[in-house]
């Protein structure tokens, strides 16, 4: 497995993001989904990481949007065939390291209450629940978390 910063504008990565969207469509209504579109993932303030299996196929991805006060973790996803291999943890480690190298000290994220595995994963990685941030509002279908990544 390899994990590296790459462009999101690749056919297998686009297909992976489509899998994520299809999965989230089964869980939440459109008004409770806060996706970042492909064009936004290509912006210079975005770190985008891709995990690839031994054949070079994309099996996971994640992004951090770097802002002036904090970074926001977006588009974290591991395909079902990539799960159980530590892909998410390695993706998150690379993203956090890249954020620290960019001067970021705090990461925040929004996920949903029906994604139990994601909630457990983020908690095990040191993320703690908090209230809404940025342009988010209180929504019973949103869970907000944050982690200080640099002193």
Automatic annotation (TrEMBL):
Q: Which residues form the N-acetyltransferase domain?
A: 3-150
**Is Acyltransferase among the key words of this record?**
yes
A Pfam family (short name) is: Acetyltransf_1
Q: Which residues form a coiled coil?
A: none
**Has keyword Membrane?**
no
Keywords assigned = Acyltransferase, Transferase
Source domain of life is Bacteria
GO terms for MF: acyltransferase activity, transferring groups other than amino-acyl groups
Q: Which Gene3D superfamilies match?
A: 3.40.630.30
Name recorded for this polypeptide: Putative acetyltransferase
